[in-house]
Amino acid sequence: MTESNRSETTPDWEKRFRAPRVSLPDWAEDAPDRSLFVSNATGTYELYAWDRATGEQRQVTDRPNGTTDGVLSPDGEWIWWFDDKDGDEFGIWRRQPFKGGPDEPAVPGLEPSYPAGLALARDGRTAVVGRSTDEDGTTIHLARTGEETTLLYRHRESAGVGDLSHDGSLIAIEHTEHGDAMHSALRVLRPDGTAVADLDDTKGGTEELGLEVLGFAPVDGDTRLLIGHQRRGRWEPLVWDVVKGGETDLDLDLPGDVSAEWYPDGSALLVAHSFEARSEVFRYDLASGALVKVPTPVGSLSGVTARPDGSVEYLWSSAAEPSTVRSTTGEVVLDPPGMKSPGSVPVEDVWVEGPGGRIHALVQKPAGATGPFPTVFDIHGGPTWHDSDSFAAGPAAWVDHGYAVVRVNYRGSTGYGRAWTDALKYRVGLIELEDIAAVREWAISSGLADPGKLILTGGSWGGYLTLLGLGTQPDAWTLGIAAVPVADYVTAYHDEMEVLKAMDRTLLGGTPEEVPDRFAASSPLTYVDEVTSPVYISAGVNDPRCPIRQIDNYVKRLEKRGAVHEVYRYDAGHGSLVVDERIKQVRLELDFAARHLGL
Predict the structure, then answer these.
(1) Nearest to 27, CA basis, from 82, 98, 96
(2) Which residue of 394, 499, 505, 591 has the fewest CB atoms within a 10 Å radius of its CB?
(3) How many whole angstroms separate alpha carbon 115 and alpha carbon 528?
(4) Does the pTM of the predicted model rise above 0.85?
(5) Could you tell me which of 167, 202, 158, 203 has the C-alpha nearest to residue 183?
(6) What is the pLDDT of residues 131-178, one digit of tens each?
(7) d(C-alpha 168, C-alpha 219), whole Å
């Protein structure tokens, strides 16, 4: 079948998954014509090299389960990519010449691990590599070609590489030595491991405040580090001189969360502003303090970068329009050939009063139809994430089949201030479900949702909330569809990667042995015998985040009761990078819903 014939016979929902898409290209600091991006052009998400000067694009990786983690060296000579086994996230960094050639271990001698950040130097031979294992916690290493790799940092708690200064003399790391995995502190080291400076906003107060590394100034000898802080209740940038000790607080008059990166000459910042599920970009001049909006369409930006010529490239989409990589020059930066993705319906904003404050929900419904509709509550993962006015093939597929889709930015979501994000502690899962229940009541009372046809679904943390909701709110949901979920919180804790163990200790206040009642109260397994709705579960057998054993424990309890359920296991990790596999999973979910709702 030709591509044109296939396009004619393929339903719109499937076209959205099959249509070639690309990420925002990363570019080499000292060779800006050389770029690296991710694309699904072959049907599997892989890394691609792009020489802008010649227009040549070359596929870098080719693995059965795909590859998305890659870094282009500042000199543009090497592409580093992370080699794990079938999505288990445990492996080593390999590298390949930008122009092509055999792969080689990037840091010989470093054993496989989970990645904990990577920073590459401009000299082409130096790298700072972060690793995490269950045995060692986090270790950070300095690797130079032709020399022995040296250990810079080790701690049982989670940490990661932040950035390497432009001249390679300073290394910034994020760490959680204080035991709070939700709020990092910062440390700056010399390449010999000696400490230069520390910044820790978790000390000396009752509030829990986090810091993050945004990047060193791109100028030789410049000791300014751009960081993010939460001192005014939301994420904002400031400039910290790590040697002189001064801080320049930008205090931008923008609501919502604000991040930033340097313009290539270090004279200005590219400011990214996220507020109420949409985003915009500004240029902030460091000398004058002038903040000027960069023109972009209304919607969401999944990434932005300032180019050496002063232009800005960004990956943009809205709920109605598929993503494109654009430039403020007016050009479409990357337009992959092949089948084009159909659009979908716009998103509508809804605000609902909840037990912890106003809840923002995003609603899509079939065009031209009137409710009440069978309604899908599609719950985002994270939990430190948020749904936005951006294009998503999954919700669009439900809308195509006559469903309304409601997405809830529950307490724990980002983008609504620190207090909203940090509200989950100790009643994990139960707090989010209170907000989802409030939006559910609105959906029914407003006439949007058919109360007899309500689906609770989500992936990762959204899958966890699905299973927990089916057990704690059994009369509220007609059926549940959970992808890669936490199902048995205690077993998940013992089997998951170390960095997630640290997060769970922060969220619940200890280990399962130290706070067993909290783990029990937040575990779907505790309530499995209360589940009365049909349940569909999909899981990757190599998933290090929501491991398969704890899902099997939950499924065995369903089997013992004779509860209506279906399980689909596939050979990947925390989700699949193979387009056909993604389409298969959506088709199974749509079929499960139609059968049990009588549609």
Answers:
(1) 98
(2) 591
(3) 34
(4) yes
(5) 202
(6) 999 998 999 999 999 999 999 999 999 999 999 999 999 999 999 999
(7) 11
